[in-house]
Design goal:
Helix content: 25-40%
Number of strands: 22
CATH superfamily of the largest domain: Zn peptidases
Radius of gyration: 26 Å
Strand content: 25-35%
Number of domains: 2
Oligomer: single chain
Shape: elongated
Length: 489
C-alpha cells in the first residue's frame, strides 16, 4: 500500500512538471506575439515606459499606481493584477544600466493582456496576485549608469534607506508582505559558468539572510524555484547558467528581503553569443519567469530536491570578448609567447540608444584558464605594429567615396589613415582602420594592459589577421565582426 501511494505521488509530481514544461515550450515558440515592440535597444528611458503604463492603467485587468518618486522626481509605478492570496513582487532596474528584465516585464504584461493560454492564466491569477515595479532607478536609467543621482548603489541602501528609491522598495514589499520576490538585474557579459568557456547567460541566487547562511522554509522555496528555472534555461542555453556566492551582505536588499520573510530570487542577465542588445536573453527572462510564476501557482516546486540547487555551477569571471592564444611577440630583440585578452568597452552616445566601442587589453601572459567569446590560436604568428598610410585624405567622406581597398591596405600592414578635416561631432571611425588627424603621431606599439588592442598578425611574411580596436579581421576571408575603430585627433 505504501509503495503504491509513493508511486501515485510521484506520478502527480511528474505530471505537474510536465504541464509546466509544456507551457514553457509554447511560450518560447510564441514569444514574438508578446514581445513589446516599443523596445529593441537596451538603453531604455523612463519616458518610454509612460505610454505603456497609461495603456495598462486604462485596462480594468490591471491596477497601475504611483508608489514613489526618484530623486529627480520621476514616478515609480507599480502594476498589479490577479486576485490570489499569494503575492509575488518583481522589481527591475535597481541599477540604471541593467534593463534586460525591464523589457521582459512588459512582454509578460502583454502575455497576460492577450487572449492566449486562458486556462493557464486563470490558474495563475486565481492563486497569485502579481506586482511589477519595472524601473526602480529611472534617474540612473536616464544616464545609463549603475548608481542613482545621489551617487549610491540602491542595492546597498536596505539598512540606512537614504534614497527615496530604496524607501519605496521597502515600503512596497512591506505593504504587500510579499510571499515571493524576484530581484531582477543584469550582470557583466564577462561572467562564465565555472570552469567552462560558456557565458553565464543567466545567473541565480537565493540570498542568505544571515552570516551563517541558514536555510529556512522561505529561502528553501526560493532555491527550489531557482532549480526549476535552471532546468528551463538549460534547454535553450545549455551549460550557460551560473550561481552567485551566497556570502551574506547585510546592506543588500536581496539579503534583507529574504530576512524580512519573502522568498527572494535574484536573477542576473549576463551574456549570450551575438546578442549585444540582449534580446535573446530578454526572451529567456520572459519564458523562465512566467514558467516560475506558473509553478508557484501550481505549487509543484515544493517537490524539487533542494540538493539540486548546489549542483548549479558557480559564477566565474573569466571571459574576454576576444582572446588571442600562443602568439609570438618580440621585445628588445627577444621573442616571447603570449596570450592576450581584450574587451570592447561601450561608450554611450548622448541622447541616443546607440553606443560605440573603445576597446582595451585586459590581461596578457598565460591566460590558459580564461576563455573568449571569440578565440584565435595564433601559434606561429607574430604581432606586428600597424603603420600609417602615407596618403592623406581630405575628409572621411572623401575616403568613403574613394576606391581605396581597406582590406588590401591592412594586408600591406597599414592600420591608420590620416584625415585632414575631422568634424568634432565624429566620435569614432566606421571603417576597419583608425582615423588620425594630420598632426597625430602614432606611438610605438608596446603591449600592455590598458592600451587599445590594435596590431597585425603575420606569418611567413604575410599579414593574415588584423586586430583593430579589439575586433579580429580575417584578411584572407575578408570578414569578421566589426563595429568601429577609433579617431585620434
Amino acid at each position: 500500500m505504501e509503495i503504491r501511494l509513493i508511486a501515485l505521488l510521484m506520478m502527480f509530481a511528474i505530471g505537474g512538471y510536465g504541464q509546466v514544461a509544456d507551457i514553457t515550450e509554447s511560450l518560447y515558440d510564441a514569444y514574438g506575439t508578446y514581445k513589446e515592440q516599443a523596445f529593441d535597444k537596451r538603453r531604455i528611458k523612463h519616458h518610454q515606459l509612460q505610454p505603456l503604463l497609461q495603456t495598462y492603467g486604462e485596462n480594468p485587468m490591471f491596477e497601475v499606481q504611483v508608489v514613489g518618486q526618484s530623486i529627480e522626481g520621476r514616478d515609480l509605478s507599480l502594476i498589479s493584477l490577479g486576485s490570489g492570496e499569494i503575492d509575488v513582487f518583481l522589481w527591475s532596474q535597481m541599477h540604471g544600466d541593467e534593463p534586460t528584465a525591464t523589457q521582459a516585464i512588459f512582454d509578460i504584461l502583454n502575455f497576460f493582456e492577450s487572449h492566449d493560454f486562458t486556462t493557464e492564466k486563470v490558474a495563475i491569477l486565481e492563486k497569485l496576485t502579481l506586482h511589477f515595479l519595472p524601473m526602480l532607478n529611472p534617474d540612473g536609467a536616464e544616464r545609463y549608469q549603475r548608481r542613482n543621482v545621489l551617487g549610491i548603489d540602491i542595492n546597498r541602501d536596505a539598512v540606512r534607506l537614504q534614497s527615496p528609491e530604496g524607501r519605496t522598495l521597502k515600503r512596497v514589499r512591506d505593504s504587500l508582505e510579499a510571499d515571493f520576490g524576484f530581484n531582477l538585474h543584469d550582470q557583466s557579459t564577462y561572467y562564465n559558468a565555472e570552469r567552462t568557456d560558456k557565458p553565464a547567460t543567466i545567473s541565480y541566487l537565493a540570498p542568505a539572510y544571515n552570516y551563517e547562511k541558514d536555510i529556512n522554509e522561505k529561502r528553501a522555496s526560493a532555491m527550489k524555484v531557482i532549480v526549476f528555472m535552471n532546468n528551463i534555461i538549460q534547454k535553450y542555453a545549455p551549460g550557460q547558467v551560473g550561481r552567485y556566492s551566497d556570502h551574506f551582505e547585510p546592506r543588500a536588499f536581496g539579503d534583507n528581503i529574504q530576512k524580512w520573510g519573502t522568498s527572494t530570487i535574484l536573477i542576473e542577465s549576463g551574456g549570450y553569443q551575438n546578442d549585444v542588445e540582449k534580446q535573446e536573453i530578454r526572451k529567456l527572462n520572459f519564458v523562465s519567469i512566467l514558467s516560475a510564476i506558473y509553478t508557484i501557482a501550481q505549487g509543484n516546486y515544493v517537490d524539487i530536491p533542494l540538493a539540486d540547487y548546489e549542483k548549479i555551477p558557480e559564477n566565474d569571471r573569466k571571459l574576454f570578448d576576444l582572446k588571442i592564444e600562443n602568439v609570438n611577440y618580440e621585445l628588445l630583440g627577444k621573442k616571447y609567447i603570449l596570450d592576450i585578452g581584450m574587451n570592447r568597452l561601450e561608450v554611450p552616445i548622448e541622447n541616443s540608444s546607440e553606443f560605440w566601442y573603445s576597446s582595451r587589453i585586459l590581461d596578457q601572459g598565460d591566460l590558459s584558464t580564461y576563455y573568449g567569446y571569440e578565440t584565435l590560436d595564433a601559434s606561429g604568428f607574430t604581432i606586428k605594429a600597424g603603420k600609417v598610410y602615407p596618403k592623406m585624405f581630405r575628409s572621411l567622406a572623401h575616403l568613403g567615396n574613394s576606391d581605396t581597398d581597406l582590406i588590401s591596405l591592412l594586408k600591406q600592414g597599414f592600420a591608420y589613415i590620416r584625415v585632414e578635416n575631422i568634424p568634432r561631432e565624429d566620435l569614432y571611425s566606421p571603417l576597419p582602420m583608425h582615423v588620425i588627424g594630420k598632426k597625430y603621431s602614432v606611438p610605438d606599439l608596446q603591449l600592455e594592459v590598458g592600451i587599445n588592442p590594435t596590431f597585425l598578425l603575420e606569418k611567413d611574411g604575410i599579414v593574415r589577421y588584423a586586430v583593430i580596436n579589439g575586433f579580429l579581421l580575417d584578411l584572407e576571408a575578408g570578414s569578421g565582426p566589426f563595429k568601429n575603430a577609433m579617431i585620434y585627433r
